[in-house]
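hey so i finally got around to running the thing on that chain from the lab meeting. sorry it took forever, my laptop kept dying and i had to restart like 3 times. anyway pasting the input first so we r on the same page abt which one it is
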Amino acid sequence: MEIHTFCAILVVIQLHVFPCVSLTSFVFGDSLVDAGNNDYLFTLSKADSPPYGIDFLPSGGRPTGRFTNGRTIPDIIGQVLGATSFPPPCLAPNTTSNAIHEGINYASGASGILDQTGTFFIGRLTLKEQIGYFEKSRSYMVNLMGEEKTNELLSKAIFSITIGSNDILSYFRPSFPFSGDKIAPEVLQDHMVSNLTTQLKRLRWLGARKFVVVGVGPLGCIPYVRATRLIPEGECSIEVNSVVRGYNSKLKEGLNRLNREVGFGAVFVYANSYDVFRRMIRNYHQYGFENGDGPCCGGYFPPFVCFEGKGKTANASSSFLCSDRAKYVFWDAFHPTEAANLIVAEKLLDGDPSVCSPMNIRQLHHTPIIPIHQRS
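ok and heres what got predicted. didnt touch it at all, straight out
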């Protein structure tokens, strides 16, 4: 039986037999999903000052380390699926105990799939290091409630991985590690997929069973790329988006292979964020936006710094901030607004196979996977 058919049957069984349960999630990735880990690192990649977090209600509008004005996509999805709070950053004090009921966020701004990505920003947690922190969280859970109950909990949790953007952006910077003799895009793509697959297998060995792996969005359309590559208004970098699409295609193929290899012991969902974002940028008026090109905060030209000045110098030192954040697709030169995140989250939750395959996130949440107590 094909994995797609099997998963569809499981969804029907779950929706009719099993009660709805709240979500425990473990989040890995870069600044798109960082919930504050970089606040605890010596790094140039931080979102710890206003106006970041200005629309984040739980903090009263104060910065939380999220690289946007409000909630990230995992924040929104977690709320919809019944989570009563957001997974805290793993580097924050006293968060280990949250792993059992809420999950933990291990994401770190500037990080990539490749270990060398993000060195320009100094501090960041590489994907390998993020999973190392999860391994410590898992050890805590085992010590507290034993191996069997830990595996049972992990089999129901959703593991989301949103990473790869910085690897591709670094490739187009002169400082890319291979830039002395630049490798072909296909080599970069293969290297990224190979390294990510290795880390996904490591997570599965540690007990993860429900994976949501988010593809890279249309980086050729973000304000940073459009400005630095002198792309005209309303257009995107064809070269950058071509590399992104090539990577996403290989990533999807790789996840399909993993689904075939593991059979019914796990599900790897490919989330097609590229097409969702691309449609939103192309047709931004249809989604209620007034601007699909420029950042709400930081202006349209380098250095794109988004910050709020203090005291008497506020007017001179503050960066540009749009009057209505809900009317912009992009919050700053790199990251979407909460309004854009809401639309993407909705699509990933309930989208058809063109958005999420072999199932969407809501279906994944309701799909029972028998925990394998003897890890393999």
